[in-house]
Amino acid sequence: MTTKQTGTYFPAGGIDEFLPRIGRVVEIDDLQLAVFRASDGTIFAADNHNPHPKGGPLAEGIVSGHYLYDPLYDWKIDLTTGQVQAPDNGQVQMYPVKVENDQVWIAV
């Protein structure tokens, strides 16, 4: 798994600001993150940079289960690990997320 383990959590917004299955861009320090809320309520935070050689934003992807479907390159990315699924390959940097008192916190 490529989740950064730094431990300093920053507020990213209220849980209601993150609509199910739709990405939202959150900026923390100099990082631009794509934050997703799965239909089961799980929140995921990833670097908002597609690992495809041509790049692009990940926040525009569509979430189904715990997978992100990138409409630009038709890639499938596991949001629990950041791993791009075969036949494609690549890795997305994921960040730890916690929810406390309806507030989303992301560690960077």
UniProtKB/TrEMBL annotation:
Keyword Signal included in the entry's annotation: no
GO MF annotation list: 2 iron, 2 sulfur cluster binding; metal ion binding; monooxygenase activity; nitrite reductase [NAD(P)H] activity; oxidoreductase activity, acting on paired donors, with incorporation or reduction of molecular oxygen
Domain spans labelled Rieske: 10-106
Pfam families in UniProt: Rieske_2 (PF13806)
Superkingdom of source: Bacteria
SUPFAM superfamilies recorded: ISP domain (SSF50022)
Signal peptide annotation: none
Keywords from the named record: 2Fe-2S, Iron, Iron-sulfur, Metal-binding, Nitrate assimilation, Oxidoreductase
The keyword Iron is assigned to this record: yes
Gene Ontology biological process: nitrate assimilation
Gene3D superfamilies: Rieske [2Fe-2S] iron-sulphur domain (2.102.10.10)
Descriptive protein name: Nitrite reductase small subunit NirD
